[in-house]
């Protein structure tokens, strides 16, 4: 054996996991009974709802036929409304066109009147008479050169305006006939659109009366079934509440069972740790006993160095056992160390 002594290192304290509080096993029968009670309530309500549905179907019959007629009437009303919208748009367009043409005709007449006032004559005959009068005045009157020049300018202007009178007459005739040629056709089209609108509105009123009569007839026929429908809805609400309650009970059972299984798992882990520690303790005791037997079997007295080494080894083993016992029992070990004779 070596002469050097080996210093024993102290064993560290073992950290223990925090233990879970004891968790009782969930009462499977209690949870099963509660779930079955909710299931029975759901099944009973479901049977009542099915019975009510059959009664509702028998009372509220002919739904498909009613919906078909209702849809046909609704389509007819939509078609009439589309035609009315079309003629209403046409009426607005024609009204705006008539207003625009009337404004245009009024402006034409106003222009003719302005030209008439500006010329001062309404026919070429009036201009010819005025020219003749001015020429006669020049021939029979004693005029200064300035006065004569003024009369000549007037005659010249009258001759210049003479063609404008013919143009004025054409504009006046056009203004007079403008409404007849431009507005009257639009008025005829507007009257036609209004007449069509009145016809369509009358047809729509008739269809609406038929539609409302059909709805009223259906409401009267299905009135007895409304109470059954309300009862069905009430039972459906109760069934939903029982379904929610059943899910809550199932979730509660799963939660408690999970806690219980976690507690069992920790207990198994603690038992396994104790078994490992017990095996380690027995192994240490066996090694200690083997060392003691080896000392007893020595024929010769060992040298001082070997004796010291064996003594230290036994002390180290004893210390490990004491610390292990403290960990298990919470109190220091009471076993006395054996010291071999020198």
TrEMBL record:
One of its GO terms (cellular component) is ribonucleoprotein complex. Keywords: Coiled coil. Residues 1-32, 321-342 are annotated as: Disordered. Residues 12-32 have a biased composition (Basic and acidic residues). The keyword Transferase does not apply. It holds the Pfam family DUF7121. Residues 186-301 form a coiled coil. One of its GO terms (biological process) is intracellular mRNA localization. One of its GO terms (molecular function) is mRNA binding. PANTHER family: LEBERCILIN DOMAIN-CONTAINING PROTEIN, NUCLEAR SEGREGATION PROTEIN BFR1. This is Brf1p family coiled coil protein. It comes from Toxoplasma gondii MAS. The lineage of its organism: Eukaryota, Sar, Alveolata, Apicomplexa, Conoidasida.
């Amino acid at each position: 054996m070596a002469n050097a002594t080996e210093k024993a290192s102290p064993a560290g304290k073992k950290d223990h996991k925090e233990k879970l509080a004891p968790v009782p096993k969930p009462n499977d029968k209690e949870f099963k009974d509660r779930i079955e009670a909710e299931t029975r309530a759901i099944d009973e309500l479901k049977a009542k709802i099915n019975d009510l549905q059959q009664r509702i179907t028998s009372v509220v019959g002919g739904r498909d036929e009613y919906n078909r007629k209702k849809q046909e009437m609704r389509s007819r009303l939509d078609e009439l409304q589309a035609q009315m919208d079309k003629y209403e748009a046409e009426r607005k367009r024609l009204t705006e066109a008539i207003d625009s043409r009337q404004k245009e005709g009024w402006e034409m007449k106003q222009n003719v009147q302005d030209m008439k006032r500006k010329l001062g004559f309404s026919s070429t005959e009036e201009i010819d008479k005025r020219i003749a009068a001015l020429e006669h005045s020049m021939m029979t009157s004693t005029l200064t050169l300035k006065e004569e020049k003024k009369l000549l300018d007037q005659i010249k202007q009258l001759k210049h305006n003479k063609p404008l009178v013919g143009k004025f007459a054409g504009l006046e005739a056009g203004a007079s006939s403008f409404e007849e040629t431009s507005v009257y056709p639009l008025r005829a089209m507007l009257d036609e659109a209004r007449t069509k609108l009145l016809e369509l509105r009358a047809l729509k009123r008739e269809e609406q009366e038929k539609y409302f009569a059909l709805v009223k007839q259906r409401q009267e026929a299905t009135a007895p079934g409304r109470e059954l429908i309300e009862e069905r809805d009430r039972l459906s609400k109760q069934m939903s509440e029982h379904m929610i309650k059943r899910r809550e009970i199932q979730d509660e059972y799963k939660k408690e069972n999970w806690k219980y299984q976690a507690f069992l798992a920790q207990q198994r882990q603690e038992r396994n740790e104790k078994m490992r520690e017990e095996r380690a303790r027995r192994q240490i005791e066996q090694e200690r006993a083997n060392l003691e037997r080896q000392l007893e079997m020595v024929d010769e007295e060992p040298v001082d160095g070997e004796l010291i080494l064996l003594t230290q080894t036994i002390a180290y083993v004893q210390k490990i056992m004491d610390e292990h016992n403290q960990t298990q029992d919470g109190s220091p070990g009471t076993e006395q160390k054996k010291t071999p004779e020198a």
